[in-house]
Specification:
- It is a single chain.
- The protein is 35% helix and 26% strand.
- The protein is of the alpha/beta class.
- It has two domains: 2-77 and 149-235, P-loop containing nucleotide triphosphate hydrolases (Rossmann fold, 3-Layer(aba) Sandwich), CATH 3.40.50; 86-148, no CATH class.
- Helix 3 (93-101) packs across helix 4, helix 5 packs parallel to helix 6 and helix 8 (213-220) packs across helix 9.
- The two termini are 34 Å apart.
- InterPro entries: AAA+_ATPase, ABC_transporter-like_ATP-bd, ABC_transporter-like_CS, ABC_transporter_ATP-binding, P-loop_NTPase.
């Protein structure tokens, strides 16, 4: 079963083709990566997936719905942690989770989400006083408080130290274990190689390869997904 279907997606800003004929599917329950350097078209694609942007041409279906037309209905079924996500500096962890929990008709119990993501000891701590890793853990919890079928994570570990990064990887692995469909957007190739069942490699607004990380590495005759990217990016010029 396909949780997400994107077909011949195009999005242009002025003279810039941000997304140029992108096609891919995401199976229910898999962790699917969109990987490539900044400006490759990943974030624009994600914005079309969650209904923040309307495609110029092409089709997008998430859980069988058109996000551009059914954004409010889909908001009850998907979660998103976007690259520029933030909260007021003085809001406390428990307050944020309780508030976000009210946005959903059938969400998870925010208290259980708080404990599941080890945020209980931080319940009374203000957002502005959290470390980078703690903030990311909270933003991930907020994306999950609606108990979504699909969750989109955009540049989840940018700016984190290595320990916090690895802890965040573990949390993403926990999502897979309970059957949540995860779309992981990253410019960290080791991250997508470690976490994703399949990846779409983006370069200049196009998907230049798609498959398991091991398949893409083998196909390009390289030793890592990052090396595969540079081989593919150069061949696509």
């Amino acid at each position: 079963m396909e949780a997400i279907e994107v077909t011949d997606l195009h999005k242009t800003y002025g003279n810039t083709r941000a997304v140029d004929g992108v096609t891919f599917t995401v199976r229910a329950g898999e962790t699917f990566g969109l990987v490539g350097h900044n400006g490759a078209g990943k974030t624009t694609t994600v914005e079309c997936l969650i209904g923040l942007k309307r495609p110029d041409t092409g089709t997008v279906r998430v859980l069988g719905e058109d996000p551009a037309r059914r954004r409010q209905a889909l908001a009850q079924r998907i979660g998103a942690q976007l690259q520029e996500s933030s909260l007021p500096e003085r809001i406390k962890v428990a307050e944020a989770l309780r508030m976000f929990g009210t946005f959903y008709r059938k969400g998870a119990d925010w208290r259980q989400v708080m404990e599941r993501w080890s945020l209980g000891p931080l319940a009374r701590k203000a957002f502005g006083d959290l470390s980078g890793g703690q903030k990311q853990r909270l933003m991930l919890a907020l994306a999950l408080v609606g108990d979504p079928e699909v969750v989109v994570l955009d540049e989840l570990t940018t700016g984190l130290d290595p320990i916090a990064r690895r802890e965040t990887w573990r949390l993403v692995g926990d999502l897979k274990a309970v059957g949540t469909t995860v779309v992981l957007v990253s410019h960290y190739f080791d991250e997508t190689e470690a976490l994703c069942d399949r990846v779409a490699v983006f370069a200049r607004g196009r998907v230049v390869a798609m498959g398991t990380p091991d398949d893409i590495i083998a196909r390009t005759g390289t030793a890592s997904l990052e090396e595969a990217y540079f081989a593919l990016e150069g061949a696509d010029r």
